Every structure is written in C-alpha cells, then in structure tokens.
Amino acid sequence: MALDSRHLVWVKRCLSENSNESLKIVSFGYPDLLVNREGLEVIFGKKFVDELKVRNDAAKIISKYDFLIEIFDTVDLFEKLGCEYDIFDIFAHQGIEEFLDLNENIPTQMHQKYDLVLDPGTLEHCFNVGSAIKNMASMVKENGYIIHHNPLIMVNHGFYNFSPTFYFDFYAKNGFEILDFPLIDEGHFSTCLANKSELGISVCNNLLVKRLFSKKIIWPNQFDHLDNIYRKLFRQYIIENAHINKVGLVPASVISEDMLAEYRGNDVSQLVVNLYDSKLCGGSRSDILINTIESAVDDDLDKIIVTTYTYEDEIVTKLIDSGFPREKILVINGSRLKPVSPAQL
User: Fold this and answer.
1) I need a labelling partner for 307 at 20 to 30 A (CA). Which of 13, 105, 176, 275 fits?
2) Which domain holds residue 335?
3) At 157, which CATH number?
4) Cβ atoms within 10 Å, residue 77
5) φ and ψ at 178, to 5 degrees?
6) Segment 26-83, tens digit of pLDDT
7) Sequence-separated (6 or more) residues with CB below 8 Å from residue 4
8) What digits encode the pLDDT tens for the residues 294-324?
C-alpha cells in the first residue's frame, strides 16, 4: 500500500475544495509515503515537512526504494493537515488498523461517512472485487472523492489487474465523475508510465474520482460510458454540420441503434445511415467488414464516423482502398472526433 506525490497533490486538491473545516478520510490499509523530502516540500512547504515525524520502521521501507533516505509517518501527515483519519484492514500491520473486510457488505452506518476514500493498492487484493468497489463508493459523501492506485499490469501482485473501462463504466453508471486519470492520454494509453521491473512491465492505474450525487450502486455493462460519449459527440457534430446531407455511422455496438433513432428525431433533419448490420453481430469479422464497406460506397455518403475501436483500423483501410476519400472519414480520439491521420493507414 502506498501513496506517491501525485496522490498527495490530489489530497491537497480535495482539501482546498472541501467546505468543511476538517476532511474525514478513510484508507484501506496503511499506505507508505513514497515521496522524498524535496517532493513533500514542493506540495506542502518546507516548514510543514520539517515538523513531520519520521517512521520508526523507516529503515525497513527505505531498503526497498533507492530514491528514499527517510520515510515519513502517514498518520502524522494527515493529522497535521487537520484531517480525521481512519485506517481499515483485515490485518493490523501497524497495530492501529480497524478490522473491515471489503469482500462483505459494510454496515449502512458507514455509507456516505467520508469526504475522501483512499485505495492505495487494496482493491486488487479483494477476491470479491465487485463488493469491494461498491463498498468504497458507498462510503463517499456527495461531492466527496476516491483515489485509486491499482495495477493495470502487475503479474501475481494481487488477484486482479484492472482495465481502465472497469473504472469508467462503474463510476459513470453510479453518479461519479473521473477527474484525473494520467494513464489515459486522449483516450489512449500513455506508455511513458510503464516501468520495467524484474517481472516484466508494471503499469498502474492512478485516478481521482468525485461523487456528484447519491444513488443506489448498480452494476454496469461494459462500455456503457462509451455510448454516452458517442451520443454527445455525434449529436454535436450533426447539429454543427447541418449542410451535410447524409452521414454514415459505424457504431460501437448494437446499443447505438437506439442512438440512431434518436438522431432521426425532429432536431436533426439529415439522414443518418447505420453502417453496422446488427444481424451480423454474431457473424464473422469479414462479414461485418464487407457489409460496412459496401454500405458506405453504395450510399454515396458525405461523411463516415467510425466509433468502434474493435475494427477501426481495418474499416478505415478498406474504405480508402475502396475509393472512399480519406478526408470524409472521422474517428473517435479520446473525447473528440478527428480526421484520419496518415499514420493510421
């Protein structure tokens, strides 16, 4: 369990945005502060750091990290920040943890109790991971925050590695907003965050999440959040380009057929053509691609918008090979629609 400098910057942000005099924080496991003195001084100032306690067992932790020459006490840091700080675990590693098993449902009196929930590397060690993240989310107050630090790729570190869609879909479905996720750069992985180790590549998810409103926590379907993004992007594009007569859409899923019906409503006059035949959903990859290309060429479209990541490169390549102009093709890039770049071909 650990907190690094980016997590502490987020903690400081939560403190500055919190209207209460004291921030009530819960951490699942005692997190080591993997930040050197200089890094802490940048965040909190020299005077603050000079007054921090050094851990009694600092030597044991320092031996694992060659960039540390001292390690400060986490509880002391949060107390000096004026926070109320609870630590839960299934083992009392430091002797100060209270027992709580995230695999099981937590008592209702713990719901919406905290301004900030810290997951410094606990979620991946909970076998009942759905219950664990539901419990974490339930403990946050409205306008409160969650900080996650979990593996994307870390072999045999815990029970699980987490794809970013795990967080995006769960939180989008339950009244939360992801405020910061450095691993994702305009919708794509930022490879600069990959660290080589003896076990290969180690990459972690680090994210700051805010609870916008309270609702019953429910389970998401995968890529629910993408459908919301695509609805917004596609609607905006159609409205802003009223001069275009016919637009083809390669939707991310058959769910998007509902989206197409919506855009054929009164506020959008032009015809929207679905280039994805839902009857072929269970068919072969080549069937879907052939159907898409034939529909695009036959319908004499002004634009084609490709929102599926699954076949994006193949569809774009085959469209251009079939004579469809590259400048008429748009693809999803993060939260924007962009023309096809030569690098994609």
Assistant:
1) 176
2) 224-344
3) 3.40.50.150
4) 22
5) -80, 115
6) 999 999 999 999 999 999 999 999 999 998 887 877 877 777 888 899 999 999 999 9
7) 34, 35, 149
8) 666 656 677 777 766 556 677 778 778 878 8
